[in-house]
Amino acid sequence: MNAPAIVGLGATVMSTSPGGEAAALAAEAVGAALADCGLARSEVDGLLVGSSQGVRPDRVGVQLAAQAGFGDLRLLEHIEIKGATTIAMVERAVLALREGVVRTVVCVFADAPVRARGSAGSMYAHSGGNSGVRGLERASGLLGSVPTYALLAARWLHVHGGAAEDLCAVALAARAWALGNPAAVQRTPLDADGYHASPMVAEPLRRLDCARPVNGAVAVVLAADPGVGEGARVAVRGTGRAHPVRRRRTGAESWFGGGRPAVDSALGHAGMTRGDLDLIELYDPFTVVTLALLEEYALCLPGQAGELARAGQLGPGGELPTNTGGGQLSGFYLQGMTPLHEAVVQLRGAGAERQVPGAGTALVGGLGGRSDHHACLVLEAA
Amino acid sequence: MTTTQLTDWLLAPGLAPDPADSLAPLYTGAAADELHLPHCAACGLALELEQRVCDGCGGAEVIWRAVAPAGTVHSVTVVHRREPGLVLAEEPYPVADIELASGHRLVLAPVFPGTAPPAIGDPVAIGFRRLGEVAVPGFTTAPAAHDPYPEEAS
């Protein structure tokens, strides 16, 4: 049987201005992905939907099947594993295609956090509720997601002997890639002075250490049958998951660790090693996460992620091309669709100014919660 | 001990936690200036605040009891972004992830305004803030970590 492949890719404009609702954005991305591979909605028999977790009432769900004009389906799910959702969705599609349950599956993620009233940061600060552990954390001033990752960042830098310069280097690499990506929302050149002038949000994270929320959507179409779809195909060679249950106790290193089996599994399926990967497309909501995941996934020698970043090896022309569209930091924040979209573009050789020469394979990672949920794909140009 | 602030310096009362939720024993204890945290009734292991089954022995009975109000800093940040209407403090404020002597972990704000951020590994004591009608735990640092000349502070 042929390996399941990504046969279609579609995206909306990534907007930092208010406008668009998630269902309309999702429908637009689905339409673009189907047009990309020459399929009609009537030829789709599987739809997987992902949305941002949280309190927003307009998040997309299984009702999207009706909203986006589909007919009868044989697979329809709204998947929710926090930030790991999108990559897990592709894995779910691959398994269903292998089982022969479906012939053609669309996976879509949409989000619209940018509103006319109040910034996205303000909306996140007001989200989370008053109950349980999160209620106690919010009562302790841990508002929004940045302070939580600031605690992770401070701990990570302490344990690994890193410094603010390491975070700066990641931000600069992401921006350098974004300059060549027309879909990136932050495309002005950035240097270290510009980084250090960025307002502090929660130490050690500055605004430029944080992903940029957008209103937008990305959809992919998957099929195993070579007769489905036209155009360039990107094979899904391997998938992997890790959900480390790390107890938050005295003496435990609970902010990171435990994700490596997801990468080992995906590479194992693919029959590849880390040295076979041409591109690393990670989930990078904060600069520190790029560094932590490079180490956690054993994509560099232990303790070397900061040094690699400072040496420019993650950026254009570097030895370890990472987040080659600018990632979530300078590109756009659509959770796992950000690294997935970029991997497909690169493996089709469609990266134009930012194209990594000879890119044939990619690792794509999704990350959820407080680095609690890992989902990985190994992709290969087919 | 005089480590309870009567009105909160940091946050608006709307951020008070629901004192009747699953952490109710913590808030009831805090109202009496005691730190109550969950343990496995069978083996005594320190449990996470929302844990229902012990990962050590599989026991499903949880007991909350008073623990020593002391710990060390696992990680710390200083929050500069202060959402209008939610954050009352006019200066950036520290928040620390604390490893308690009891084995538990809590992410807490300082009990008192003007607390200098502690360093990772520093010892801290646990006191209580009063946020709206609810007492919540917070941390205090050793006197040496405070400004030694507070009366001269601007």
Search tags:
heterodimer, A: 382 residues, alpha/beta, Peroxisomal Thiolase, Chain A, domain 1, 2 domains, nine-stranded mixed β-sheet, two-stranded antiparallel ribbon, 13 helices, 11 strands, 18% strand, globular, B: 154 residues, mainly beta, two-stranded antiparallel sheet, 1 helix, 7 strands
**Largest interchain contact:** A-B, 43 and 47 residues
Structural class of chain A: alpha/beta
Q: What is the CATH domain class of the largest domain in chain A? A: Alpha Beta
User: What portion of residues of chain B belong to β-strands?
Assistant: 25-35%
Order of helices and strands of chain B: HEEEEEEE
Q: Give the biggest sheet of chain A.
A: 9 strands, mixed
Enumerate the strands of the largest sheet of chain B in spatial order, edge to edge or round the barrel: 5-4-3-6-7
Write down the CATH topology of the largest domain in chain A. Peroxisomal Thiolase, Chain A, domain 1
**What sequence of helices (H) and strands (E) makes up the elements of chain A?**
EHEHEHEHHHHHEEEEHEHHHHEE
Global mean pLDDT of chain B: 91
The best one-word shape of chain B is globular
Structural class of chain B: mainly beta
Number of strands of chain A: 11
Number of helices of chain B: 1
Which oligomerization state do the chains in this entry correspond to? heterodimer
Silhouette of chain A: globular
Helical amount of chain A = 25-40%
Terminal Cα separation of chain A, in Å?
14 Å
Largest sheet of chain B: 5 strands, antiparallel
